[in-house]
Amino acid sequence: MTVIRNWKNVVPYIGHDFAIIWPIFRSVGWPDKTADEAPLRGMDGITLHRMQGGQAGDYHDHADKEQVYYIIRGNGQMKLDGEIFDVKEGDAIHIPAKVMHQFINNSDDWCEHLLITADVPESKP
């Protein structure tokens, strides 16, 4: 079944301390999600994140998921396993499973990025 969803029709929530998150799609079986909200079979999710200037998310990792951050608007920094990298509009950052990471908006403006998450079965114990 094909599903078309607009992020403007999704109810956002606050996550990773300071990001406003729109869960556009989640994986099949995601708790409290309809089939249209959770149709993904090979991915865990695609979400739109917005973060106000001067804020930073929590520093964390995922044992069994890889992620791609795609910067849509603005710039900031990614902390990856203790090392800081400058990121800007148009950058895509691949984060393998088990890599500690944190998005930091060290600018004065809002930053937007898509976060694409996929399961990595071989990383499960």
Plain-language structure description:
This protein is an all-beta fold and 125 residues long. The chain has a domain at 7-57 and 89-123. It has strands at residues 13-15, 19-26, 45-51, 65-73, 75-80, 83-88, 92-95, 101-104, 111-119. It has a 6-stranded antiparallel beta sheet, with no helix packed on it. Strand 1 and strand 2 (19-26) form a beta hairpin.
Number of strands: 9
Order of helices and strands: EEEEEEEEE
Structural class: mainly beta
Shape: globular
What would the average pLDDT be, to the nearest integer?
Answer: 92
Quaternary organisation: single chain
> So how many helices?
0
Features:
0% helix; 9 strands; globular; single chain; 45% strand; 3-stranded antiparallel sheet
